[in-house]
Specification:
alpha+beta; 6-stranded antiparallel beta sheet; two-stranded antiparallel ribbon; globular
Length: about 230
């Protein structure tokens, strides 16, 4: 469906691919390039960039619910946490999450299709410009790992199997991860799990935290000490 876009991207070097992709998204989904500065009245069109900015500010906002809903819809990953723990689909917490996930203002412009294409672009970028190991070492800090994830198994004292939220943020910086909690988990995330990262959309989203947005599920997680 999007083959012409990726055939076009093959003609550009690494630094130019994001510009081409973002312009394609702007035209395809009729996005306003100045939506945050434009004071004129116009019909609100849901944008992947707006949702990403909302996620980076606080993943428990409605924008985060929509993004977790995309991961649930496309990959069958049920959220474990959104404002509060979600033990199953029959609890009030899940229905509260669904209410935010279906916020009408975020579903007027094929927002899931936008994230489908963003994920495709991330996979294209990593396959073309990523490392040969096809994985990236990432970190997450938490004071209470069980708050938004589940410890499935403790194979060793510092080697756990952790089930993550449907969509979750990690960072490539151990120092940055330590700012979010005393327990630091280290994973090797395969390319196929990565949805968005700072180099993918330079200028489109904040990049100060070296934040990677990855698909959830079970990860072999090493508990590391930070000094």
């Amino acid at each position: 469906m999007n083959a012409p876009l990726f055939e076009t991207l093959n003609r550009f070097e690494k630094e130019e691919t994001a510009k081409v992709f973002m312009e394609h998204m702007r035209v395809m989904f009729d996005l306003d390039p100045h939506e945050l500065e434009n004071n004129e009245k116009r019909v609100y069109r849901a944008s992947y960039l707006r949702l990403l900015r909302g996620w980076l500010f606080d993943s428990n906002r409605p924008e985060g619910a929509v993004m977790k809903g995309w991961a649930e819809s496309r990959f069958g990953l049920m959220p474990l946490f959104h404002r509060e723990s979600i033990p199953n689909i029959n609890c009030q917490a899940y229905w509260s999450y669904l209410t935010e996930r279906m916020t009408p203002r975020f579903h007027n412009n094929s927002i899931f299709a936008q994230f489908d294409l963003l994920y495709e672009f991330a996979q294209y970028y990593l396959q073309r410009f990523g490392n040969e190991e096809r994985k990236i070492t990432l970190y997450r800090g938490a004071n209470d790992v069980k708050r938004d994830s589940q410890i499935i198994e403790k194979r060793e004292k510092k080697l756990w199997i952790v089930r993550n939220n449907s969509l979750v943020s990690y960072t490539s910086s151990m120092e940055r991860a330590s700012e979010f909690g005393d327990t630091i988990l280290r994973i090797d995330a395969p390319f196929e799990k990565i949805v968005c990262f700072p180099e993918l959309l330079p200028g489109g989203i904040p990049q100060s935290e070296s934040e990677y947005i990855v698909l959830g599920g079970d990860y072999i997680s090493e508990v590391v000490d930070f000094f």
